[in-house]
Specification:
alpha/beta, two-stranded parallel ribbon, NmrA-like, NAD(P)-bd_dom_sf, Ergot_Alk_Oxidoreductase
């Protein structure tokens, strides 16, 4: 692998301390909402991996980052988008990502767009407790099938496109090897753990009530896996 130095932007240097233990990684404290905090972070940076959180002002954050990249003469932007961002009319998340993609494309900086499917790790991060405690996990997805992708595979793609000019101007859709229903996932989890695991589909209205009780802004779509716990509790009360 090429000799590459990585500068990781973090909200808190203290919380990002573990990243400093990785070879070739330095950390810098930045605030996406504060353009003044970005100048030092972008100094002598050649490539930018643009990742924004799911929030009401993520478009503003993306613009701040791209504008600073332009000022600092960044040579390549890799935008982490979402599968379905190119669909019309698509869902709200996709439309937000498409707007950010367009901003990157019109920046004048060479770019690569990555559109991954849902992260495989989200199933563990947000459903592990109910799987361990009840042998169940809860989501409002019906019989839909999803090709979840491992975030480590996404990272490997990011490295590949950053280190090669041949991917500039390209858009890649990233998925796992197979589309599975959540019932099928439950079966596979049971086989892997040696325990019975069930998937419980949550009615859409119950999911909406759970999100409201979680004080989620109405403008944000129903797609955060962190909602699975309040969704589970509301479903149990029905």
């Amino acid at each position: 692998m090429q000799d590459v130095k990585v500068r990781a932007g973090v909200h808190s240097v203290i919380k990002g301390e573990n990243l400093k233990r990785l070879p070739g990684v330095e950390i810098v404290e930045i605030d996406f909402r504060d353009p003044n905090s970005l100048h030092a972070a972008f100094t002598h940076v050649d490539g930018l991996v643009l990742i924004t959180p799911l929030s009401e002002d993520q478009l503003e954050m993306a613009r701040n980052l791209v504008e600073e990249a332009k000022r600092q003469d960044v040579k390549h932007i890799v935008k982490l988008s979402a599968l379905g961002a190119g669909a019309e009319p698509g869902i709200q998340l996709g439309r937000w990502h498409r707007e950010m993609e367009t901003y990157v494309e019109e920046s004048g900086i060479p770019y690569t767009i990555l559109r991954p499917a849902g992260f495989m790790q989200n199933l563990v991060n947000y459903s592990a407790d109910s799987i361990k405690g009840e042998g169940k996990f809860y989501m409002p997805v019906g019989e839909g099938k999803v090709s979840y992708i491992d975030t480590r595979d996404i990272a490997a793609v990011v490295v590949e496109v950053l280190l090669s000019e041949e991917h500039m101007g390209k858009v890649y859709e990233l998925t796992g090897p197979e589309a599975l229903s959540h019932h099928e996932m439950a079966t596979l989890l049971g086989e892997a753990t040696g325990k019975k695991v069930d998937f419980v589909d949550v009615p859409e209205e119950a999911a909406r009530e759970a999100i409201k009780s979680h004080r989620t802004p109405a403008s944000l779509p129903m797609l955060c896996w962190s909602y699975t716990q309040p969704i589970r509790r509301v479903n149990q009360l029905r």
